[in-house]
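job 3f2a | input accepted
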Amino acid sequence: MNPDLKKLQPYPFEKLNALKAEVKPAVEGHIALSIGEPKHAAPGFVLDSIKDNLDQTNRYPLTKGSAELREAIAGWLTRRFKLSATALDAEQHILPVTGTREALFSFAQCFIDRTQDGSAILMPNPFYQIYEGAAFLSGAEPVFYNTVKDNNYLPDFDAIDEATWKRCQIIYICTPGNPTGSVITKQQLTRLIELSKQYNFIIASDECYSEIYFDESQPPCGLLEAAEACGNTDFTNCIVFHSLSKRSNLPGMRSGFVAGDASLIKSYLLYRTYHGCAMPPVHQVASITAWNDEEHVIQSRERYVKKFEAVLDILKPVIDISLPDAGFYVWLNTPVDDETFARELFAQQNVTVLPGSYLSREKDGINPGHKHVRMALVAPLDECITAAERIKQYIQTLN
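job 3f2a | predicted structure (399 res):
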């Protein structure tokens, strides 16, 4: 057995199940705000596309995806991030993947050089646990950089010392952040690109929440957008990960892509040819229709805006809470220990949230997830309102 498997920690939801195991809620009607699974209806035209193309299941898919899918993705990236018309070559810069979770994991397996002693993969803290598992199973050391309230939960790349940068082969960033919702600015992304050029590491930008934001005039910046703006027109060392799961409410379709540095895409395609996880042809056709339509995305954003407005109005009188930069999470700073908050909220009000310490590790003497909980506003509006009223009642017992 691969000895690195022993380094993997229990997944956050395993810990959450154990925390709740002996608790019987005092009220009926469970509301789960713990899992970031979109609950808005899948676009009907995408489902129709699947039904209309089932005959495509009788052939093997290409690992690199169809030319039509890659063109659709390149077109969406160009429109969304205001890239120049010739910035992206669908043949060289785009690679479809079966959901970004598997890609975020397998990417490290492809690009970590095991011959280098002390190889490190940097990642935010708190973080999406796939990053940590990817580091361990690639033979690298996960090195965390804290994102804390005093800095609006944003990374401070200049606080990372030179010795760490010299060991870094890959840095994962997540913007908008899971669980914090904070958006890394174009200026910060430009600084990271400069550091990447200086120390020769890959920037792996998880941008799966980029299409959930609250001001139509201010969409979050992306890594490729920042790269072109600062003159890195070849996207050297820059790779982005995007998905239809959150954008289009299609988590079960497992459709996403990676894009960026052509030399990295070429090597990753070789890896994936052996990895054997090509997107089914019918999902490729359906994905084309999703990437080519924005109206359903705008409608979904409008639903999230209403949920955040309602929930914040209810909770602001009893706790310090504010609208995140983007995404569908509330990263709530709790007045008591986060495990206590989550357990007692479930016991008293039958609402499940995720303790922040389950999403982070101790670094520099602190666990930045301590006294935070993650609340995913994915349930229907009425359920979010009910959950917020229950959370308010629980918080009032603490006060």
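job 3f2a | The longest helix spans residues 295-315.
job 3f2a | closed
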